[in-house]
């Protein structure tokens, strides 16, 4: 049952606003749409979350880059820390997933990269799993396979279309049907929190020389 509490971190595999026919709508509520589809070579489903945010690119990027705040708003996030800053747009991140006793806490390590298209101003933030970057900790289960990507598309009305696609296969003995039931809980809660948190003054005021708005 440990995967009932999966943290669904922050991803897209390069999808546009048009959802292809192999994605199936799982939930559509309060402006948040959650889609699932069968992953290649796996019985575990991929997830896509979509929402339009009334905010700037700078504000949402500032929130997603505020790793210290993740335990406060991200689903079942325990520890969250940067292991290495490679440059202004790339880092190695470590995070744990809170699990109920007596299940071992889970953790993962990801290489996070941010890129903005100079013409469209679309921002992508990709997360690539690095399970062997550091040795596993005692009493923690290292997630072996995880991939994700945010796609942030600025709109002409000043909003941002945020698309987050995610796939995780933690391994272990939990059957795929149970995982597929469990992993649909986190994205909706994450996006509800995202909508509220991005409006906080410190994110609304954030400006980065790396991020250009649509009209810049």
Give the overall average pLDDT.
84
What would CATH call the architecture?
2-Layer Sandwich
CATH superfamily assignment? START domain
Strand content: 35-45%
How would you describe the overall organization of this protein?
- It is built from five helices and ten strands; from the N terminus they run E-E-E-H-H-E-E-E-E-E-E-E-H-H-H.
- A hairpin with a 6-residue loop joins strand 2 and strand 3 (45-53).
- It has helices spanning 57-64, 70-73, 176-182, 185-197, 201-204, and strands at residues 24-29, 32-38, 45-53, 77-87, 90-97, 105-116, 123-129, 140-142, 145-154, 160-169.
- Residues 1-17 have low confidence and may be disordered.
- The protein has a single domain (2-204), classed as 2-Layer Sandwich (Alpha-D-Glucose-1,6-Bisphosphate, Chain A, domain 4), CATH 3.30.530.20.
- 38% of the residues are buried.
- The protein has 216 residues and is an alpha+beta fold.
- The radius of gyration is 17 Å and the shape is globular.
Secondary-structure map:
Elements: E1 24-29, E2 32-38, E3 45-53, H1 57-64, H2 70-73, E4 77-87, E5 90-97, E6 105-116, E7 123-129, E8 140-142, E9 145-154, E10 160-169, H3 176-182, H4 185-197, H5 201-204
Parallel strand pairs: 6-8
Antiparallel strand pairs: 1-2, 2-3, 3-10, 4-5, 5-6, 6-7, 7-9, 9-10
């Amino acid at each position: 049952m440990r995967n009932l509490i999966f943290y669904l971190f922050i991803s897209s595999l390069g999808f546009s606003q048009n959802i292809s026919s192999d994605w199936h709508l799982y939930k559509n509520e309060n402006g948040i749409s959650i889609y699932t589809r069968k992953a290649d070579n796996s019985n575990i489903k991929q997830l896509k979350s979509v929402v339009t945010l009334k905010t700037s690119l700078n504000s949402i990027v500032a929130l997603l880059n505020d790793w210290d705040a993740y335990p406060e708003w991200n689903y079942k996030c325990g520890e969250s820390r940067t292991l290495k800053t490679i440059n202004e747009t790339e880092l190695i991140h470590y995070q744990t997933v809170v699990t109920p006793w007596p299940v071992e806490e889970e953790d993962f390590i990801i290489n996070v990269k941010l890129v903005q298209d100079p013409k469209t101003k679309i921002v992508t933030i990709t997360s690539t799993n690095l399970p062997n970057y550091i040795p596993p900790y005692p009493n923690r289960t290292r997630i072996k396979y995880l991939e994700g990507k945010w796609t942030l598309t600025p709109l002409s009305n000043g909003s941002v279309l945020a698309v987050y696609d995610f796939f995780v296969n933690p391994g272990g003995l939990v059957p795929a049907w149970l995982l597929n039931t469990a992993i649909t809980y986190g994205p909706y809660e994450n996006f509800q929190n995202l909508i509220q948190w991005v409006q906080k003054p410190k994110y609304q005021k954030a400006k980065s020389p790396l991020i250009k708005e649509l009209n810049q």
